[in-house]
Amino acid sequence: MQGIPLPGLAKTKKTAGDETPLYITCFDPSTGYHLDTIQADSEYDIAEKIGLARRAWTKSRWGESSFNERKRVMRSLLRWVVKNRETCARIACRDTGKTMIDAALGEILTTCAKLEYLIDHGEAALKPESRKSSPMMFYKSSKVYYEPLGVVAAIVSWNYPFHNLISPIIAALFAGNACVVKCSEQVLWSSTWFMNAIRECLLACDLPADLVQLVCCYPSEADTLTMSPHIKHITFIGSEIVGRKILQAASIHLTPVTLELGGKDPCVILPETDLNKWIDIWLRGSFQNCGQNCIGIERFIVHSSQHDQLVRLLIERTKKLRFGPSLAEASSDGGYVAPVDCGAMISRHRFGELERMIQDAEEEGATVMLGGHSWKHPYVEEGMYFEGTVVSNVSPSMEIAQQELFAPVITVIPYQTIDDAISIANGTRYGLGASVFGPKQHECIAVARALECGMVSVNDFGVFYMNQDLGFGGVKSSGFGRFAGPEGLRSLTCPKAITVDRWPWLIQTSIPAPLQYPIRSVVKSWDFLSGMIQLFWGDSIGERTSGVIQLINASR
Prior knowledge:
This protein is 39% helix and 17% strand. The protein has 17 helices and 20 strands. The termini are far apart.
């Protein structure tokens, strides 16, 4: 796909009246280097983009497209992602400060898995579905048709700028919709490039690029999108606070919303678990994307007999982690950069709050075994780094055990009984994902079933998302609804039930004489319906036979 504009080249936008344009400054968090300054969308710009998407959807008749046409777009995108995987990863790294390994795992693998699912199984989820009829309706046939909504919106977080952008777009397109995506101000630079690539793909498939639109604005203008009567569904990935505001705005036009909010995911480790066997998975679960992962492990809930051993293993491995920029261009002379395990945080604005919660936990009896502070890189002084941190003997009531940290911070909470472990795991207002580890799978499954959350991995971490046939989402303050899987695709459609005659040439509905208007006899009308109820739902053959006799008598 040639000629994709570089991020930030098209900066001039229209404004309404005497509006003063606002700008968004983009920079690389791993170095602090300036990437670009791009004009933010105004309310006028947002409304215009919604209109462009509507017109493109209507003119192209995309809602009437065949599944083969939709698969063609998915195949084109998959081919492009695979061929340009390194470029996509590097752009995501540059805009978020993550490592290339984190980008490969969280941006590329997940996107390829979702595209593959849509190509292989998307049609099965959305094709007309036959539904069963009751004995009384034996002569009727019913189907549910999953019809496109029109223009849908997605408001997505910054932690996975490529996957979080393309995921709602491909789901919307496959469901027959147009899509307007609002990216985070933190990742406008990369989002612009990724959106340009997707639009080029549509053009290559002889479709209007305007079927997809990118919006990036400050919060003061966001209501133009969330309160628009032309937006038929909103998917939101982000914080609980913002999610509640979006839900309120969407209620103006009763726009359906899928919310994937914060998490405080537990890793429940059952007694006699081989800690050495699983330590690599636990480290990946904690430090993937520098802890900025909605389903990252935030709480290790371990039996008190293994608490100290787990802490020793975590300290031993965590203190070896290398933090820094992962791209060669980040070095001052453009030369070799030492390998790094963890990249940067997206910004410094939460560092003070993180340090305060860690210090408060220590004052309340927890032990800060490692880290606990922001860290200044010796070569890139403006890089935004936080130390790999291990806090042990954490009490479930501590703020650090209740609030989502979204950082490279491990908390370890001891328990005495499995019932205690379940209670601790369920003891926050969140309920997104979880992990359960143990030597006996049936015991792990029993604990998994008792957890108040939307997804659980047994003896693994986060693998439920690599199976795109599974819906992704949570409960409680982690939101509601699902994206991914059949549930996610169908949420972007209008399920329309249609009932027809199974044998129209033989039998069709007619109103029996006792029920025809005007009612001739209330007594006979009631006896007729009473007999019908007894015929179809009586407990015994005798009762049902009696119902037939009552029907006949009432019909005379």
